[in-house]
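In the design runs reported in the main text, the only information available to the sequence generator was the tokenized backbone. The following block is the verbatim input for one such run; it is reproduced so that readers can re-run the procedure and compare outputs position by position.
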């Protein structure tokens, strides 16, 4: 394993945590716009429809994937600017 990849590990972990928190905030705001509710349904929420539960899960997954990709890519680009090597 390259030294840059080892050095990037703690940065990647920190970025992952920040990205997860950011994705949760974005999802909450988007869900509020889509459904007008503060909380998205849980899969076991008896009072919510299948449509609503599956829509929330799909939307949440898409948002988390986009935020994760953006955060990971930004971290890699920043690492290359600082160290001169890609952390792959």
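Verbatim output:
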């Amino acid at each position: 394993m390259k030294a840059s990849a080892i050095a990037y590990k703690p940065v990647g972990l920190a970025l992952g945590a920040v990205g997860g928190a950011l994705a949760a905030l974005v999802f909450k705001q988007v869900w509020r716009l889509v459904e007008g509710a503060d909380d998205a349904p849980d899969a076991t929420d008896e009072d919510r429809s299948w449509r609503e539960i599956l829509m929330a899960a799909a939307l949440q997954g898409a948002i988390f994937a986009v935020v994760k990709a953006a955060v990971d890519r930004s971290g890699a680009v920043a690492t290359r600017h600082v160290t001169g090597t890609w952390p792959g």
